[in-house]
Design a protein that fits this description.
It contains four helices and two strands, in the order E-E-H-H-H-H. The protein is mainly alpha-helical. The two termini are about 30 Å apart.
Amino acid sequence: MAMKKCKECGKEISSSAKTCPNCGKDQREFLSQFAICCIILGIIIMLSPMFSSLSDTANIVIYIILGTLFTIIALYVKSIRKTMGLLLVILGAISSFTVIGVVIGIPMIIIGGLLLFV
Protein backbone atom coordinates (compact mmCIF):
# COMPACT_ATOMS: atom_id res chain seq x y z
CA MET A 1 0.00 0.00 0.00
CA ALA A 2 1.40 3.39 -1.00
CA MET A 3 1.75 6.00 1.72
CA LYS A 4 1.70 9.79 1.65
CA LYS A 5 1.92 12.56 4.22
CA CYS A 6 -1.21 14.23 5.55
CA LYS A 7 -1.67 17.77 4.23
CA GLU A 8 -2.41 19.04 7.75
CA CYS A 9 -0.48 17.09 10.39
CA GLY A 10 2.26 15.43 8.29
CA LYS A 11 1.61 11.87 9.53
CA GLU A 12 2.01 8.97 7.10
CA ILE A 13 -1.39 7.82 5.78
CA SER A 14 -2.64 5.60 2.97
CA SER A 15 -2.58 7.28 -0.42
CA SER A 16 -6.19 6.20 -0.94
CA ALA A 17 -7.42 7.76 2.34
CA LYS A 18 -10.05 10.47 1.90
CA THR A 19 -9.43 11.88 5.37
CA CYS A 20 -6.53 11.64 7.79
CA PRO A 21 -7.30 9.15 10.59
CA ASN A 22 -5.14 11.26 12.93
CA CYS A 23 -6.45 14.82 12.45
CA GLY A 24 -9.50 14.35 10.21
CA LYS A 25 -8.25 16.68 7.43
CA ASP A 26 -9.89 16.08 4.05
CA GLN A 27 -7.20 14.80 1.66
CA ARG A 28 -9.22 15.18 -1.53
CA GLU A 29 -8.45 17.93 -3.99
CA PHE A 30 -10.43 21.15 -3.84
CA LEU A 31 -11.58 20.77 -7.45
CA SER A 32 -13.65 17.70 -6.62
CA GLN A 33 -15.39 19.67 -3.89
CA PHE A 34 -15.75 22.61 -6.28
CA ALA A 35 -17.86 20.34 -8.51
CA ILE A 36 -20.34 20.00 -5.64
CA CYS A 37 -20.51 23.78 -5.41
CA CYS A 38 -21.14 24.07 -9.16
CA ILE A 39 -23.97 21.54 -9.03
CA ILE A 40 -25.66 23.37 -6.14
CA LEU A 41 -25.27 26.72 -7.91
CA GLY A 42 -26.63 25.20 -11.13
CA ILE A 43 -29.76 24.06 -9.30
CA ILE A 44 -30.20 27.51 -7.75
CA ILE A 45 -29.76 29.18 -11.16
CA MET A 46 -32.31 26.79 -12.73
CA LEU A 47 -34.78 27.74 -9.99
CA SER A 48 -34.06 31.48 -10.29
CA PRO A 49 -36.88 32.19 -12.78
CA MET A 50 -39.27 31.30 -9.97
CA PHE A 51 -37.49 33.86 -7.74
CA SER A 52 -37.84 36.67 -10.30
CA SER A 53 -41.60 36.82 -9.90
CA LEU A 54 -41.25 37.27 -6.14
CA SER A 55 -40.83 40.58 -4.33
CA ASP A 56 -37.43 41.80 -3.12
CA THR A 57 -38.37 40.88 0.43
CA ALA A 58 -39.22 37.31 -0.57
CA ASN A 59 -35.92 37.01 -2.45
CA ILE A 60 -34.02 38.22 0.61
CA VAL A 61 -35.80 35.68 2.78
CA ILE A 62 -34.84 32.93 0.32
CA TYR A 63 -31.18 34.04 0.38
CA ILE A 64 -31.24 34.20 4.20
CA ILE A 65 -32.59 30.65 4.35
CA LEU A 66 -30.01 29.38 1.82
CA GLY A 67 -27.15 31.20 3.56
CA THR A 68 -28.17 29.89 6.98
CA LEU A 69 -28.57 26.36 5.65
CA PHE A 70 -25.16 26.38 3.94
CA THR A 71 -23.50 27.86 7.04
CA ILE A 72 -25.00 25.21 9.32
CA ILE A 73 -23.96 22.44 6.93
CA ALA A 74 -20.44 23.88 6.73
CA LEU A 75 -20.09 24.07 10.49
CA TYR A 76 -21.18 20.47 11.04
CA VAL A 77 -19.55 18.79 8.01
CA LYS A 78 -15.88 19.72 8.18
CA SER A 79 -14.95 18.01 4.90
CA ILE A 80 -17.08 20.39 2.78
CA ARG A 81 -16.50 23.59 4.78
CA LYS A 82 -14.41 25.26 2.06
CA THR A 83 -16.94 24.33 -0.62
CA MET A 84 -19.81 25.82 1.35
CA GLY A 85 -17.69 28.89 2.07
CA LEU A 86 -17.15 29.41 -1.64
CA LEU A 87 -20.86 28.88 -2.26
CA LEU A 88 -21.72 31.54 0.33
CA VAL A 89 -19.30 34.00 -1.26
CA ILE A 90 -20.91 33.45 -4.67
CA LEU A 91 -24.48 33.66 -3.34
CA GLY A 92 -23.56 36.77 -1.37
CA ALA A 93 -22.19 38.40 -4.50
CA ILE A 94 -25.32 37.49 -6.46
CA SER A 95 -27.66 38.82 -3.78
CA SER A 96 -25.64 42.06 -3.52
CA PHE A 97 -26.80 43.15 -6.99
CA THR A 98 -30.02 44.52 -5.50
CA VAL A 99 -30.09 47.51 -3.16
CA ILE A 100 -31.84 45.59 -0.38
CA GLY A 101 -29.75 42.49 -1.06
CA VAL A 102 -26.56 44.27 0.03
CA VAL A 103 -27.77 43.88 3.62
CA ILE A 104 -27.70 40.10 3.16
CA GLY A 105 -24.97 39.78 0.53
CA ILE A 106 -22.12 41.39 2.44
CA PRO A 107 -22.53 39.21 5.57
CA MET A 108 -22.78 36.11 3.34
CA ILE A 109 -19.52 37.08 1.62
CA ILE A 110 -17.81 37.64 4.97
CA ILE A 111 -19.05 34.35 6.47
CA GLY A 112 -18.14 32.48 3.29
CA GLY A 113 -14.67 34.00 3.31
CA LEU A 114 -14.17 33.00 6.93
CA LEU A 115 -15.24 29.42 6.15
CA LEU A 116 -12.71 29.29 3.32
CA PHE A 117 -9.86 29.98 5.74
CA VAL A 118 -11.02 28.04 8.82
